[in-house]
User: Which sequence fits this backbone?
């Protein structure tokens, strides 16, 4: 009886694999996923920025699904960050408002996540920046 159950389990597993391989997701295959990471400031990473974005091949539109901000901290003071964007030829706008950063010891971090292939869309060449409250410095990257 146990051998019969084992064979049925293997057969069902093989059938599931065949079915899942026979129906690939055509919409997911048409996207290009990119990540931009950078550090600015002193020899250590004064300000850190990471952006996950996607686009369809041949498109000039870029979707931003995740923005990450970090900075070195020398105090226990609460830190707040927001992200900004500037479309080519346009002015600077707020992408998402102030968010309190979490203390990680020698640095603080926060992030905004919209979901896989979700989030605001911008034209190619848009500049995304992190702005920390109380600082005039920004860390910026361009969506290519």
Assistant:
């Amino acid at each position: 009886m146990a051998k019969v159950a084992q064979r049925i389990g293997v057969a069902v597993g093989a059938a599931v694999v065949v079915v899942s391989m026979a129906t690939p997701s055509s919409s997911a295959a048409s996207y290009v996923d990119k990540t931009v990471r950078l550090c600015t400031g002193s020899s250590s990473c004064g300000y850190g920025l990471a952006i996950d974005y996607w686009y369809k091949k041949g498109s000039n539109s870029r979707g931003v699904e995740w923005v990450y901000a970090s900075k070195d901290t020398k105090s226990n003071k609460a830190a707040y960050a927001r992200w900004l964007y500037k479309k080519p030829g346009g002015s600077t706008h707020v992408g998402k408002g102030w968010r309190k950063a979490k203390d990680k010891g020698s640095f603080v971090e926060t992030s905004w996540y919209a979901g896989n292939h979700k989030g605001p869309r911008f034209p190619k060449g848009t500049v995304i920046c992190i702005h920390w409250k109380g600082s005039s410095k920004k860390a910026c990257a361009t969506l290519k």
User: Anything to note?
Assistant: The chain has one domain: 26-142.
